[in-house]
Amino acid sequence: MSRRAAPHPVIDLSADTPCCPPLAQRRVPAETAAVLAPAFKALGDPVRLRLMSMIASAAGGEACVCDLTPAFDLTGPTISHHLRTLREAGLVDAERRGTWVYYRARPAILRQLAALLTVEPGTAA
Which one of 3, 11, 21, 27 has the fewest CB atoms closer than 10 angstroms to its CB? Predict the structure, then answer.
């Protein structure tokens, strides 16, 4: 008898409504954890967390790689690697304009992550 895994429910990380209740209210289902973990993992690096902060707080909602790179004592290829990791985790979108790439935060997934970490007063945590 073969064992087939049950199909994973689709979690829409671009939805404006939270994918799941906060951690302090209910356990996160395995499927949800598998979908959200890459975003948390991407943010677990100090350079990527700073890059994400710079992009999310940029005037006009986007940041050019030409403005991000000088803020670090790292090579361009290293910054590109970190930006690619953020993009692959679904945290940012990128658009090439000429020789430069501009990055925008994806607010919906940031709201999903924030909602998961929300702790309401009086909630056991």
Answer: 3
Question: How many helices and strands, by DSSP H and E, does the chain display?
Answer: 5, 3
pTM: 0.80
φ and ψ of 96, to 5 deg: -85, 130
Instruction: Give the number of other CB atoms < 10 A from CB of residue 16.
Output: 9
**Whole-angstrom Cα distance, residue 30 to residue 53?**
28
**CA triplet 120, 121, 125: central angle to 5 degrees?**
70
Nearest to 51 by CA among 76, 86, 97, 95: 86
Phi, psi of 83 (to 5 degrees): -65, -40
CA–CA gap between residue 111 and residue 17 (Å, rounded): 9
Residue with structure tokens 């943010």?
A: 43
Q: For 120, how many CA atoms within 13 A lie in the half-sphere containing its CB?
A: 9
- Residue 103, strand partner residues: 63, 94
